[in-house]
Automatic annotation (TrEMBL):
This is Rieske domain-containing protein. Keywords: 2Fe-2S, Iron, Iron-sulfur, Metal-binding. Residues 26-119 form the Rieske domain. The keyword Transport does not apply. InterPro entries: Flavoprotein-like_sf, FMN_Rdtase-like_dom, Rieske_2Fe-2S, Rieske_2Fe-2S_sf.
Length: 373
């Protein structure tokens, strides 16, 4: 135990004796039976909220507001002496309020006497302290004025990284992008979701709408969560995004849906705060499969990306499928290579570029009109 821990432990030991000398500052918060083992409760003293827990017979009183995103600790759960926030599971010592570093939500004196429970907020066991590690990641839209068109490709094909296979959707994406790579006025970037380490959405919006953060709370809590690369590319960098997916039972790939759920935090910014993160950006789609279902998958993807704020050029998707009675997967990849799929994907991207040029011309006209008004 280091010196700081020894100091806070001594404060806990001395709490009862010190408070008996200062009863005038203590507040009775209820009968002892109202604070059962393993349960949390939120109390209010002079307009300030505190979280009270009983663990292994001992009482603890800490600040109610989690330092991560303000979640209510009194509604959380306790395990091994740690209080886990009801929103995102950040945890704090139930008596000192201490996290795993120097940060603390604040710990306050609490004791039981004559079957009643008392709190003295003026007697601080460990003071509130916000550590720099809890500063939020900031990702906001950027405006580039260099005239460059930035095109992002997202491959949602899943495969074994050590034993890769041919993918018609990914092949089409990469070949179509090669038509723009190295050309003046264009920048391209391809993200393969299978190469990114990121967690599945844990549905914090279902607990409380304010618990859904931007960027995603999982990204903020996990420094190794690599979906931040996608967030930055979508919101800060690209003008156009082209999403490529195989067809899986008349739907997009499972990896696509894993990404889609983690993009809910973009749409929820609109729902909660009327904050639109995607403006004047265009989306397009490459959809391939052994059987039919291209239009059904395209409709679902277009609906979702429109809800994020993306718009679409004329004919915003291209597809390839063999049909129910022609599902010859041995020749599928070669047949797709020999088709017009890549050239049609290039045309789709060109149409998206034309729409971006229209947006930019409108913005330039608006800015010029405003200056001369």
């Amino acid at each position: 135990m280091n010196k700081k821990s020894q100091k806070y432990a001594k404060r806990l030991q001395d709490t009862r004796g010190l408070l008996r000398k200062s009863r005038n500052f203590s507040v009775c918060i209820g009968q002892a039976l109202e604070f059962p083992e393993g349960c949390g409760r939120t109390i209010i003293i002079e307009h300030k909220k505190y979280a009270v827990f009983r663990f292994q017979g001992k009482l603890g009183c800490i600040g109610n507001s989690c330092l991560h995103a303000g979640g209510p600790l009194g509604e959380g759960r306790i395990r091994d002496g740690r209080v886990y926030c009801a929103w995102h599971n950040w945890d704090w010592d139930f008596q000192t309020g201490r996290g795993y570093g120097d940060e603390s939500v604040g710990g306050y004196a609490i004791w039981e006497e004559n079957n009643k429970v008392y709190v003295d907020p003026a007697h601080v066991i460990m003071p509130l302290k916000v550590a720099p590690a809890h500063k939020k990641i900031t990702i906001t839209p950027k405006v580039f004025d260099d005239g460059t068109l930035r095109i992002l490709g997202i491959s949602t094909t899943m495969m074994n990284l050590e034993n890769p296979r041919a993918s018609t959707s990914e092949y089409t994406l990469e070949q179509a992008f090669s038509a723009f790579q190295g050309k003046q006025g264009f920048e391209t970037r391809v993200l393969k979701l299978r190469e990114l380490r990121f967690r599945t959405c844990e549905g914090y919006y279902s607990r409380d709408k304010a618990a859904c953060l931007w960027p995603c709370s999982l990204t903020q809590a996990d420094k190794d969560d690599q979906l931040i690369d996608l967030y930055r590319a979508l919101v800060e960098w690209c003008d156009i995004v082209i999403v490529a997916t195989p067809i899986r039972w008349n739907s997009a790939s499972s990896l696509y849906y894993k990404m889609q759920e983690r993009l809910n935090c973009i749409q929820n910014q609109i729902t909660l705060y009327d904050r639109v993160l995607i403006k004047n950006k265009v989306a397009g789609f490459i959809i391939t499969g052994g059987q039919d279902g291209v239009q059904a998958v395209a409709g679902s993807m277009m609906m979702f990306f429109s809800e994020l704020g993306f718009t679409f050029g004329q004919f915003p998707f291209v597809g390839w499928s063999r049909g129910w009675y022609n599902e010859n997967m041995k020749t599928n990849f070669g047949d797709a290579q020999n088709s017009d799929l890549v050239s049609e994907a290039v045309k789709m991207i060109q149409r998206a570029c034309e729409l971006i040029a229209t947006y930019r011309n409108q913005q330039h006209h608006y800015s010029s009109h405003k200056r001369h008004k």
